[in-house]
Design goal:
Shape: globular
Helix content: 10-25%
Structural class: mainly beta
Number of strands: 27
Largest sheet: 6 strands, mixed, barrel
Strand order of the largest sheet: 6-7-12-8-11-10
Radius of gyration: 22 Å
Strand content: 35-45%
Length: 408
């Protein structure tokens, strides 16, 4: 059985923006910011009543009223306005090829350890959405001889800004890196909010635990769960790995390549690192790859965070940590400050590597460093850089995204 590395491609259309990436995380994770800035969560009254054709009322009348938490943006006059698709980073930084159906249709998907749905752009989308598809590949289940409708099942992903994606479900052969998963549930999009239209990927492949899969009435197995159940990968290698390289490593032996593996660990990568593999228990009670992260360091000085946990999330570009930790990190960078207009910490773009601190986060008992080059995420204007590590707001755990994963 050929096990191969699945190449990760840096999306050529991706343009890094600190505030937009932060808003995307507010949308994905639903936390409330603890630092001053334009974006926040408010409440909106929603009435599930009727609209009467001869009434002057702009809202539904009668029915059940409920209060809904919504993501909002402060306008120039201090009012709470709508968060639009333009306010957030909806494009994927990394995409991977996946083949679905017979004959195979190849789509570029965002592999996300923070979710558990495998959903794709499809020909079942409305004509108005398809007209905006651009270079997207739309999966056409009618052209696959191995497709089977799961007619009683639907799916829907909803975010804090009321954006959503939803549709129907079927099963088909899904091939990832030469490994074919039979009868894998594939979620076809019938509806996509505008926020999804900016993404260059053709959908998402969730790598979190199946307990947070959104298919109703019964959640479906994720691709990794099916790989294990179908013995597509060895029982003693029921795992996947991810390596995120950097263009700055182009002169190194691996050329800075990025890839996933399923069912094996790439030994040349381990040997090149000069490190031994470290393991720590995973807490999957919330469906994520969560682990103990009870300390971090800044220039060798330990910050104890007793009881703290963290989630490894490949679908997130930034790293989100407590306000105390943020303060410790940016206090160690000359000229760094919090910019309330951009809702994030920034530091001077002319900061040299020797002026940047060594920052590590614990995975179990071992510390792993953030590469200094990734402490700066995007241009913030006025000679400043938006930091790759930002506030997690009122969340009680850290989200360690690509900023941190690149150094692991």
């Amino acid at each position: 059985m050929p096990f191969t590395k699945i190449p990760i491609t840096v999306n050529p259309n991706y343009s890094a923006s600190g505030p937009k990436s932060y808003v995307y995380m507010l949308r994905k994770w639903g936390f409330s910011p603890s630092k001053e800035g334009p974006y926040h969560y408010g409440t909106k009254i929603h009435t599930q009543g009727k609209h009467f054709p001869h009434s002057n009322a702009q809202q539904a009348i009668g029915g059940r009223t409920r209060i809904r938490k919504v993501l909002q943006k402060a306008t120039a006059d201090g009012q709470a306005g709508e968060v639009t698709a333009e306010d957030q980073q909806n494009d994927s930084m990394y995409i991977c090829p996946v083949s679905i159906g017979t004959p195979a249709q190849t789509l570029k998907l965002d592999f996300d350890t923070g979710s558990s749905d495998l959903w794709v752009w499809s020909t079942k989308l409305s004509s108005s959405v398809k007209s905006k598809a651009g270079s997207h590949t739309l999966f056409d289940s009618s052209k696959s001889s191995t497709w089977k409708d799961q007619s009683d099942s639907t799916w829907k992903i909803s975010y804090g800004d009321n954006s959503s994606a939803s549709g129907v479900v079927g099963t088909d052969n899904v091939t990832i890196g030469g490994l074919t998963i039979k009868a894998q549930a594939v979620e076809e999009a019938q509806q996509l909010s505008d926020e999804f239209l900016q993404d260059s990927s053709d959908g998402l492949l969730g790598l979190a635990w199946g307990s947070i899969n959104t298919v109703q009435p019964t959640p479906v197995k994720t691709p990794v769960e099916n790989m294990i159940a179908q013995s597509d990968i060895p029982k003693d290698q029921s795992l996947f790995t991810v390596k995120l390289g950097s263009w700055r490593d182009a002169d190194e032996p691996d050329k800075g390549e990025s890839f996933y593996t399923f069912g094996f660990i790439d030994q040349p990568t381990i040997q090149a690192s000069g490190q031994q593999i470290s393991y720590t228990p995973v807490d999957n009670s919330q469906g994520f790859w969560m682990f103990d992260s009870a300390s971090m360091t800044v220039n060798g000085k330990t910050v104890n965070q007793q009881g703290n946990k963290a989630i490894a999330d490949t679908g997130t570009t930034l790293a989100l940590v407590s306000d105390e930790v943020c303060q410790q990190i940016y206090n160690a960078i000359p000229g760094a400050s919090y910019d309330s207009q951009q809702q994030g910490y920034t530091f001077p773009s002319n900061t040299t590597a020797d002026q940047l601190p060594t920052v590590t986060f614990a995975v179990g008992d071992k510390q792993f460093a953030v590469q200094k080059e990734d402490l700066g995420f995007a241009d913030a204007g006025n000679g400043m850089v938006y930091g790759g590590i930002q506030s997690r707001g009122d969340m009680t755990f850290d989200i360690l995204g690509d900023t941190w994963l690149k150094g692991v």
